[in-house]
């Protein structure tokens, strides 16, 4: 029989204060918020980082999976990887607890993924698809709350119904979650139908939850100045970013208006990230490298297309010398760009007019890190012009936009293929186990 530890650990606002009252947070992402990326993101202003989403059953049963995803000698190291929250997806309280016990000594909290909207999560009955089973969610969170040394937190999505969303959030907190992160999108809002996150419902939820509740907002962060706008409009304690951070780690930089921090040159950012990966022993950072290269370079590769197949055909397990050649190619190209006599005129950030959603798009030189623009409000044809300084062509037609989306999907595939097979096998196992229970 386990002994409850819920009364002996930091809770709520105490925990938030103990980890430094973070304001900027790297979101948990499948295969993308691994150690190297967390280290890089902290250098550019991230106060708190979440690990990638780990599958609890695989983490317990498959030692190769566990060692790949979590290096017990590096991940969670107090010198360079704290504060950190480890996230798991799960549908079995015992497996979740076993997995969490394996990391509790090297993290500040354990988070339950209740936000993944992908088909694999539906098949495996985890992530956002647990929204149909509040009783199970309560049991999962309560099991961790009662038995872990560290606190439990949760990341959720909203329903279309505001009142139901509020009751859902209250249930998650009642179960024992000390922080709650709310993504302002429903689970149906994904892919081409992603659309804009709803900050108004986030404000409503914030106002109707206990005043001292630690509340993180997630969604719609493209630029550093969106952070303060989100905080003001939602009254959140901190702002979390996933995709915005992946394409531009400088999205969290608010200490100064230094464009070399907020929109770093891709050659500088790529070199810095690559050297971090090269310095680590864990496999997780190595296998995530290709996907990060594509995202950091996404605007750059729209112009220098010749690099795309080179990156795509280079194995993540290839010698570091092969990847170093790619970094050097990027460095050489950018060096030539900066030899242009009018570079000072070209190398500027220009802000556009305020849009209906409250923010403004920025015109960023293609050789600098910048956000990826998703289709607005789920429309398949996006008429917004995507401008890049120094480019002769504008990506404006729907055909070109479709081609860009196709390339993005190809890039995302590189980051998903590592764990897809095992996750599918585990989802099938979960599905079969569920059938056996109801038989």
Automatic annotation (TrEMBL):
<feature type="compositionally biased region" description="Basic and acidic residues">
    <location>
        <begin position="401"/>
        <end position="425"/>
    </location>
</feature>
<protein>
    <submittedName>
        <fullName>DUS1</fullName>
    </submittedName>
</protein>
<dbReference type="GO" id="GO:0017150">
    <property type="term" value="F:tRNA dihydrouridine synthase activity"/>
</dbReference>
<dbReference type="InterPro" id="IPR018517">
    <property type="entry name" value="tRNA_hU_synthase_CS"/>
</dbReference>
<dbReference type="GO" id="GO:0050660">
    <property type="term" value="F:flavin adenine dinucleotide binding"/>
</dbReference>
<dbReference type="InterPro" id="IPR035587">
    <property type="entry name" value="DUS-like_FMN-bd"/>
</dbReference>
<keyword id="KW-0560">Oxidoreductase</keyword>
<keyword id="KW-0288">FMN</keyword>
<keyword id="KW-0285">Flavoprotein</keyword>
<feature type="domain" description="DUS-like FMN-binding">
    <location>
        <begin position="26"/>
        <end position="313"/>
    </location>
</feature>
<keyword id="KW-0520">NAD</keyword>
<dbReference type="Pfam" id="PF01207">
    <property type="entry name" value="Dus"/>
</dbReference>
<feature type="region of interest" description="Disordered">
    <location>
        <begin position="397"/>
        <end position="439"/>
    </location>
</feature>
<keyword id="KW-0521">NADP</keyword>
């Amino acid at each position: 029989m386990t002994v409850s530890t819920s009364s002996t650990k930091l809770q709520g606002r105490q925990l938030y204060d103990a980890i430094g009252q973070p304001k900027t947070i790297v979101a948990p992402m499948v295969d993308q918020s691994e150690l190297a990326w967390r280290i890089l993101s902290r250098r550019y202003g991230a106060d708190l980082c979440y690990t990638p989403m780990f599958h609890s059953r695989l983490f317990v049963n498959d030692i190769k999976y566990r060692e790949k995803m979590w290096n017990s000698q590096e991940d969670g190291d107090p010198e360079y990887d704290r504060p950190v929250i480890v996230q798991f997806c799960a549908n079995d309280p015992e497996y979740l607890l076993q997995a969490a016990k394996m990391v509790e000594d090297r993290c500040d909290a354990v988070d339950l993924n209740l936000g993944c909207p992908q088909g694999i999560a539906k098949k495996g009955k985890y992530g956002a698809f647990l929204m149909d089973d509040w009783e199970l969610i309560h049991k999962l969170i309560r099991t961790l709350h009662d038995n872990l040394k560290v606190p439990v937190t949760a990341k959720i999505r909203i329903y279309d119904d505001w009142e139901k969303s509020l009751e859902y959030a209250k249930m998650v907190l009642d179960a024992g979650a000390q922080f709650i992160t709310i993504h302002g999108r429903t689970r149906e809002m994904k892919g081409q139908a992603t659309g804009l996150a709803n900050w108004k419902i986030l404000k409503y939820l914030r106002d109707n939850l206990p005043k001292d509740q630690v509340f993180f907002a997630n969604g719609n962060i493209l630029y550093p100045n969106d952070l303060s706008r989100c905080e003001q409009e939602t009254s959140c304690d901190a702002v979390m970013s996933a995709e915005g951070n992946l394409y531009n780690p400088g999205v969290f930089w608010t200490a100064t208006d230094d464009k070399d921090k907020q929109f770093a040159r891709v050659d500088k950012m790529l070199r810095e990230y690559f050297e971090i990966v090269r310095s680590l022993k864990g496999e997780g950072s190595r296998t995530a490298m290709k996907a990060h290269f594509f995202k950091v370079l996404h605007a750059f590769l729209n112009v220098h297309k010749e690099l795309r197949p080179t990156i795509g055909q280079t194995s993540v397990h290839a010698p570091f010398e092969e990847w170093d050649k790619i970094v050097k190619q990027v460095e050489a190209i950018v060096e030539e760009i900066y030899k242009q006599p009018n570079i000072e005129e070209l190398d500027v950030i220009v802000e556009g007019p305020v849009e209906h959603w409250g923010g403004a798009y920025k015109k960023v030189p293609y050789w600098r890190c910048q956000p990826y623009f998703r289709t607005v409000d789920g429309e398949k044809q996006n008429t917004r012009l995507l401008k890049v300084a120094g480019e002769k062509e504008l990506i404006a037609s729907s055909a070109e936009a479709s081609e860009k989306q196709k390339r993005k999907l190809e890039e995302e595939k590189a980051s998903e293929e590592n764990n897809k097979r095992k996750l599918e096998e585990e989802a099938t196992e979960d599905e079969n186990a569920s059938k056996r229970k109801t038989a």
